[in-house]
Amino acid sequence: MLGYRRLSFVLAFLVMPALAWADINSGFYAGYQRLLTDYLVKQTLPGDGLISAFEYRSALADNDLQQTLTDQRAKLMAFNPETLEGREESVAFWTNAYNFFMLAQILTERPDGELVSSVWDYGGRVNPFVDSVFERKSFAVGGRAYSLNEIEKEILLGDDYADKGWKDARVHFAVNCASVGCPPLRDTLYTADNLEDMLAENTRRAFSTERHLRVEGEVLYVTELFKWYEEDFTEVSGSEKAFIEEWADPVVADRVAGTETIKFIDYDWALNSPANFPELR
């Protein structure tokens, strides 16, 4: 018996580091992953562009929805983000958190029982006397309330991550604001193992989607993300065009290189439900 106990202790000691170093994202976000698997629809466009939409009405008919949301929120509330290991796990964790919180917000807060037509229905641009959904400190991680802006701008793209060399402008093509004009939500969780590939793929496919980038003669039309977050793109690549050329498909990059003027595509803030995408009708 004593020998068995010693063997068990040795095995536990050997296994513990592997458990401690394992990426948390896949198991931790299992509830969120179920929603993505069951209710996200996507379509590949010519040139390998991508759009995706969430079937909110179908999700609301799911008898397990509220329990799924409650359980995922509880896990986030109880989790200590200081235990995250390294850049990949950390960036993946907070990107998943942002996207889950936005999705849960739409599914949970429905004025008069109806889905919002746009995230601005919660306040901000439409009603300046009410904080926008991005400014509300309504999203708890580790016992602290965060706003979506804090997660995106002060964590993922903030000074601390910049000092560590973790800041990555491609995050703008990973966080999803539940709007048609936003780069698409993916049906795969971000993890330490897939983060680099996903960021590269998201950015490349966004630049192959006319909703986010198109070239007309010498004019380059790009998503307004490049207007709002110009500094993030220029500090890493020197210019917006250089950033696009670095991460776009080579065919797209060649077309972009021949442009002389940049103009912005009006951002479509309509809810990212299938009915609001002409390609999915």
What's a quick, concise take on this entry?
The chain has helices at 2-21, 25-28, 30-39, 56-60, 65-78, 86-108, 148-156, 159-164, 195-207, 225-228, 230-237, 240-247, 250-257; strands at 40-45, 49-54, 139-141, 144-146, 213-216, 219-223, 261-265. By secondary structure, the chain is mostly helical.
Write the layout of secondary structure elements.
Elements: H1 2-21, H2 25-28, H3 30-39, E1 40-45, E2 49-54, H4 56-60, H5 65-78, H6 86-108, E3 139-141, E4 144-146, H7 148-156, H8 159-164, H9 195-207, E5 213-216, E6 219-223, H10 225-228, H11 230-237, H12 240-247, H13 250-257, E7 261-265
Parallel strand pairs: 6-7
Antiparallel strand pairs: 1-2, 3-4, 5-6
Describe the structure.
- The chain is mainly alpha-helical and 281 residues long.
- The protein is 47% helix and 11% strand.
- It contains 13 helices and 7 strands.
- The chain has helices at 2-21, 25-28, 30-39, 56-60, 65-78, 86-108, 148-156, 159-164, 195-207, 225-228, 230-237, 240-247, 250-257, and strands spanning 40-45, 49-54, 139-141, 144-146, 213-216, 219-223, 261-265.
- A 3-stranded mixed sheet has the order 5-6-7. Strands 1-2 form a two-stranded antiparallel sheet.
- Strand 1 and strand 2 form a beta hairpin.
- It is globular and about 50 Å long.
- The model is unreliable at 1-21 (pLDDT under 50).
